[in-house]
Hints:
Helix content of chain C: over 70%
Structural class of chain B: mainly alpha
Helix content of chain B: 55-70%
Oligomer: heterotrimer
Distance between the termini of chain B: 27 Å
CATH superfamily of chain C: Cytochrome c oxidase, subunit III, four-helix bundle
Structural class of chain C: mainly alpha
CATH architecture of chain C: Up-down Bundle
Shape of chain B: globular
Largest sheet of chain B: none
Number of helices of chain B: 16
CATH class of chain B: Mainly Alpha
Number of domains of chain B: 1
Number of helices of chain C: 8
CATH architecture of chain B: Up-down Bundle
Largest interface: A-C, 60 and 63 residues
CATH topology of chain C: Four Helix Bundle (Hemerythrin (Met), subunit A)
Amino acid sequence: MFEKLRNIVLKxxxxxxxxxxxxxxxxxxxxxxxxxxxxxxxxxxLTVVVSVIGLPQPTAIIVAMVVAAIKATLxxxxxxxxxxxxxFYSLIFIISILFLALFFIFTSLDVFTRGQVNPEESSxxxxxxxxxxxxxxx
Amino acid sequence: xxxxxxxAPKSAHAASAGGVEPNYLNAHxxxxxWMTTVDHKRLGIMYLVGILTFFAAGGIFALLVRTxxxxxxxxxxxxxxxxxSGDTYNKLFTLHGAVMxxxxxxxxxxxxxxxxxxxxxxxxxxVAFPKLNLMSFYVYVLGGCFLLFSILxxxxxxxxxxxxxxxxxxxxxxxxAVMGVFILGFSSILTGVNFIVTIHKxxxxxxxxxxxPLFVWAQYATSLIQVLATPVLxxxxxLLAIERTMGVGIFDPKLGGDPVLFQHFFWFYSHPAVYIMIxxxxxxxxEIITVNSRKQIFGYKAIAMSSVAIAVIGFLVxxxxxxxxxxxxxASAVFSFLTFAVxxxxxIKVFSWVATMYGGSIRLNSAMCYALAFLFLFTIxxxxxLFLGSLSVDIHLHDTYFVxxxxxxxxxxxxxxxxxxxxxxWWPKMTGRMLSEFWGKVGCFFVFVGFNITFLSQFLLGTxxxxxxxxxxxxxxxxxxxxxxxxxxxxxxxxxxTLIYMIQSLINGEKASKNPWEAMSLEWQxxxxxxxxxxxxxxxxxxxxxEFPEIDHSLARGGH
Amino acid sequence: MGEQQSSQAAAAxxxxxxxxxxxxxxxxxxxxxGKLGMWLFLGQEVLFFSGLFLxxxxxxxxxxxxxxxxxxxxDWKLGALNTIFLLTSSLTMALAVRGAQINxxxxxxxxxxxxxxxxxxxxxxxxxxxSHKFHDGLLPGHFFDAAKAMHNGHPAxxxxxxxxxxxxxxxxxxxxxxxxxIGMLLMLWLLVRINRGDFNSENHVFLENVGLYWHIxxxxxxxxxxxxxxxx
Lengths: 138, 560, 232
C-alpha cells in the first residue's frame, strides 16, 4: 500500500509526465451525467421520505448521513471527474477528509469521556445538565 | 526520461545576450514596478522587509514588557507596575505574541526566503501561480493593517490565544484583531497551495524527489500544514467574532456552550502552526550545516521523511495545551502519549545534523555559528517540551514562566535563529553583497548569550511558580526577573548590531561571487543577485544537492 | 511516450501558445498545475467547513431536544427545493466542462448561464427563508426573540438553547451562501470569457476549476440539507 501511495505522489510530480492526463480530455458520454443526476434526485427523495417516516433517532441520522455520503461520492467521482483524473487529486481529497475525521475524533474523545475521574466535570453529568438548564432559564 | 528533456532547447533569453543581463533588482525601475511585481524574488524581498519591520515592532513590545518586569529598582521594593498599568501590560504582551506569531514567525522563512529560493532551488522561472503570490502578499499587508487598526482602537488584552469566554466579553477591540488574523490565515493558505504546486510541477529536468534540497522538503511539509490547518483557524476566529457580536454562546458556558471547545478549535490549528514555524527552520539548518561541513548529509531520506512525519503527527497532539483546562483525563493521556511520539522524528533530525558535522571539515562562518546556536537552543527547547508533555509535571508547570521559556527556546531560539542564520547564508545571493564575517560573529555572540540569559532564568522562575502574563510578582522573583531583563537587552543589542552591518553591507559590502559557500544546489548556479528569470539556461540536474566535489568517495559509499 | 512529449514541448516552445504563461514549459504543465492548485484549495474548503460541522455535531449532542424542536421552524420543502436547484446546477456545470472538452462554445455558454440562474434561484429561496426568520425573531444569539417567535405562531417553548441552534443555522447556511455568491460572480466572469472565445479543449482549466469549486459548494449543501432541515 505504501508503495502504491509513493507511486501516486511521484507520478503526479514530475513535469515530464504532467501531460499524460491533460493532453486528451476524457469525455464522458452524456447519458453518464444524466444517470448520475437521476441517482442524486432519487437519493434526495429517499432522504426526505426517511425523515418523514420518522425512524428512531440513531438510525435516522445514520441513514441520512450514509445517503448524503453516497450523493457526495457520486458528485465527486463523476461530476468532478475524480474517477478519471490524476490519482493524486483523490489523495489530496481523501487526506483532507481524514484530517476532518481526526478533528472530530480527538475532540469527541475529550467531550465524551470527561468526568471519569471527577464526575462533576462531565459534559453530561447530572450537575452539568442542571447547571446548563439553570443558565438557560436566566 | 531525463535525457529526453535535456535535448529540448530552452533558452528563450539565453546566454547569447552575452554581456551583463540586468538582475531582478534593476531589471525594472520605480516603486510601481515593485508594487505590481509578480517576480517571486521581489515578493520575497517585500515580505522580508515587512517581516523584519514587524519583528522590530514585536521586539520593542517585548523589551517594554521586560522593562516593566525589572520592578522598581530605585526606591526599594514596592509597587512593581512602575512603568505602565497592568492593563497596558496585558495589551503589550498580547501584541508581542500576536505580532510575533502571526506577522513574523509564521511567514518568516516560508514567505520571504521560501518565496525567494524555492523556485531557484527547483530550477524554475517562478512559482506556479505568480499572480496569486502577489495577492498573498497584499492579503498579508491587509491582515497587518487590521491588526494595526486593532492596536490604534485600544488594542487587545486576551493574549494571542483569544481564549473564550474572556475574548467574547472583554471590552478591547478583539473583532478587528481576529479579522486581521483571519485574513493573514488566507495569505498563509494561498502561499501553501502555491508552494505545493510549485514543488510538484515546476522541478527542473533531472530534479527527482530524492535530489531536492532538504529546504524544499521542509517547505513542502510546512505547506501541507498551512493548507490543512489554517482554514480551521479561520473558521474558529469567525465563530469567535460571531460569538462576540451576537452573543451566540457556542463557546460560552453562561449561554450553554463549552469554552474547552474553543480551545480544541484553536489548537487544532495552532499546534500544527508550531510546526509551520519550526519546519522551515529545520530545512534551513539542514542546508547550512551540510554546506559548511563539506560532507554528504547524514540520513537524507530520514530528514526528509521526518519533516513529513512531524507535519502529520503534529496534528495529533494539540490537546497537550489543555491538560489543565478540564479536558477529559483519557484525552489528556492520549495526547500526552502522542506528544512524546513527535519527539522521535525531531530527534532523528537533530541526530542527523550532529552526525553530518562529525568528521566534516567545518567552515565556521556566521551562518554556521547561527546553525550551531540553533542546535543548542532548539535542543533545550525540544527537551523541555517533554517535561511539559508529561501530565503530572505539566500540572505544576502549566502557565508558568517555564512554558514561556520553553516556547521561546523553540520559536525564538529555533525558528528566529534559523531565520537569521538563513539570512546570513543566502544574503550574498539575495543582495549580491557579502556580510561582514567579524561583525556577524559578534552579533551572533550577543544573540546567543543574551538569549540564554533571558530565558534560562525564566526556566528557574517557572519551576519556582512564577505565573506567566502577570505585571506584578512576589519580591523573591525580582532578581531572576532582572537578570532576564538584562539578557533581553543584550539580545536586542545583538539584533541591532546585525541590522547595522546588514545595512552597511547593502551600501558598500564586498561584491559576492556566484557561489561563495561552494554549495551544489541550484540557487547557487545562477548570478548573485539572480537575473529576472532566474537562469540563463534551463538547468539540468545530474546529482544530489550535497554531493560536494571534495567528498572522498573511496572511504565510504554514499555517506548515509 | 517520453519522446513524443518532449517533441510536443519543443513545438510548444516554438509557437508559444497564446494562453501559455511565461514560466510554464507546456500547456499540459500549466493545466495540471492549475488543477492541482484547485484540488488543494478544495481540501482547504473541506477543513474550513469542518469546524462548523463539528460545532453542529457537539451542539446537537448537547441539546438534542433543541435541535428536534427548533428544526421544525425551518421549512424542509424550501430546503428540498434548494437541494434540487443545486443538484441541477451541478449537472449543468459538469455539462459546461464537457462542452469545453468537445470545443462547443454554445454548450459552454448556455450551461454556465443555466448554472448561474440556478445559483440565483437558490439565493432567492434563501432570501425568502432568511427574511421569514428575521421577521419572526428566529435569530442567533441574543437577537433571538422568543416572544416575537411565539407571537408569530411558533411553538412557545423551545427547550435548551434555541439561540445556539439558530446561530449554527445562520453561520452554516450563511457561509455556504457566501460561497454560492462567490461562485456566481466567477460564473459571470466565465460568461465573459466564454463569449470572448477563451476556452477550448486544450485550454479550459479555469472553467474546470470554477466547476470543481461549484461542485464542492453543492457537496456541502448535500450534507447541510439533512442535518438542518431533516433532523427527525
